[in-house]
Amino acid sequence: YYKSISSTTEPLFTYLIDLGHKVNLDYDSFLILVSFLCLILLAVFVKKLQIQYVMLPFLFFLVYPFVMSVVIVRFTMAAGLIIYAFSFLLIPQKYGWLKYSLLVILATLIHSSSIFFLIFLLVNKISLKKTVFRSVIFLIFFLFASTLIKNVISADVLFLSDKIGGVNAEVENMEKTSFNYYFGTIIRTVIAIVFFFYIYFRYYKTNKDLYAPRIQNIIDLSLKFNIIFFSSIGLYFISVDFSRLLFPILFLNYCVYA
Q1: Which of 77, 114, 131, 215 is the most exposed place for a label (fewest CB within 10 A)?
Q2: Could you tell me which of 85, 179, 170 has the C-alpha nearest to residue 124?
Q3: Closest CA to 73 of 160, 176, 166
Q4: Of 49, 128, 50, 40, residue with least CA distance to 90
Q5: Are 96 and 89 spatial neighbours (Cβ–Cβ below 8 Å)?
Q6: Number of H helices, E strands in the chain
C-alpha cells in the first residue's frame, strides 16, 4: 500500500491506492473503508434477494471465507461488486445483462481475474443440460489455456509484478513443487459445489412447489452458476489468483441456503 505501483490491467485498483495516498489515508483506514463498502454491497444484495434470514449469509461468511478476505484486499473489493452484480441476473429486469456486464468489467479493473464471471451470461436462459455441456467445454478450454500459458508463454498475467515480484516468485515455486496446493484449492471448490447440489436436490427439488416463482428462478439460476463455475478449476493452474474466484459464488450459495 505504501509503495508506488502501477498496472495496465488493473488501473482502478492502482487509482484507489493513489487516491488514498493523496488524502493521507493510512493502511488501516484504507482497510476499514474497503471493508465498509464491501459489506454495504453484500447487504444490498441480500436485501434485493428478499432473504428471510438476513444474518445467515453473513454468519456463514464469518466461518469462510472471511479470514481469506482479510488478506486479499484487492480481490475482496472486486468480489463485492461481483456479488452485487449477481442480482441483475437473478432478478429479471430490463438491461439486467448490461448492468451485470458493466459491474463485472469494473471489478476486472480492480482484479483482472474477475473477467471470468462474464461467462455467467451464457447460462442465463439455457437448459440445465446445455449448462453442464458448456461447463465441460470451458473446463477443457481453460486446462488447455493453463498448459499453454505456463509451459509455452511462461507468463503470469494477473500479478502486479512491480509490487509483488518477490511474493510471486515464492508462490510460483509453491505451485510447481506442492501437490497439496493444487489438491487443496480444487477440493475446496468441489466441496462447495457438491454441497450446493446436495441442498438443492435434497431439500429444494422435492419441495419446489412450495416456493414462489421469483424464488424458484433465483435458486435454479444459482444452480446453473455453480455448474458453470466448476470450469474455473481449469484456471487454477495458471495462477493462485484464480482460486479466489470461489469467494463470490460462496456468498451466493449462502444466500440461497438462507
Answers
A1: 215
A2: 85
A3: 160
A4: 49
A5: yes
A6: 11, 0
In the numeric block, which cell numbers belong to residue 200? 438443492
How many C-alpha atoms does 125 have within 13 Å on its Cβ side? 4
* pLDDT tens digits along 69-101: 666 788 889 999 999 999 999 998 899 999 999
Three-state secondary structure call for residue 110: coil
pTM flag (> 0.90): no
Closest CA to 236 of 152, 164, 178: 178
- Residues 6 or more apart whose CB falls under 8 angstroms from that of 33 comprise 25
Cα 86 from chain centre: 11
Alpha carbons 39 and 169: distance in angstroms, whole number? 32
